[in-house]
Design goal:
about 30% helix; Ribosomal_bS6_sf; Small ribosomal subunit protein bS6; single chain; alpha+beta; Alpha-Beta Plaits; about 30% strand
């Protein structure tokens, strides 16, 4: 009997780590579980809105990788046990076909409506102040 292997899927892992050197541990964890990292963002230091595990600062980064779906749970468990990883989130980026996007933009998918020119109403000269009676007369003319 021939076993069919499921295809690898693309994922994105966002993470907060305690120090700048800990980002390599995240990449190594993915490699240990058979993931292929194809993009790694530079890690930047951020100020946290509230303390996370008694830390007020952390380093944020993200990785895009390809992996088997069943390996994601193992990666998550390993990262939860890692003391240097404060938080992480694994998502599946939306799949968009380039041909569909190009076709939609060429076919005028987003059409802009032309606005009809607004009728210019005669304005009262700004040199003199209008009285309440004059304003009421103007309103009656407009509402007719």
């Amino acid at each position: 009997m021939d076993l069919i292997k499921p295809d690898k899927r693309d994922y994105e892992l966002s993470f907060l780590v305690v120090d700048k050197g800990s980002e390599t541990a995240v990449g190594e964890t993915l490699n240990r579980h058979g993931a292929e990292v194809f993009y790694q963002s530079p890690v930047t230091q951020i100020q946290l809105a509230y303390p996370v595990k008694k830390n007020k600062q952390a380093y944020f980064g993200f990785l895009q990788f390809r992996s088997l779906p069943e390996a994601i749970e193992k990666v998550a468990k390993t990262l939860q046990l890692d003391k240097t990883v404060l938080r992480f989130l694994v998502i599946t980026p939306p799949i968009r076909k380039r041909e569909e996007r190009a076709l939609k933009s060429r076919s005028g998918f987003r059409q802009q409506r032309e606005r009809a020119p607004e009728a210019v109403s005669p304005s009262v000269s700004s040199n003199r102040a209008l009285t309440n009676e004059a304003l009421e007369e103007k309103l009656e003319e407009i509402l007719k």
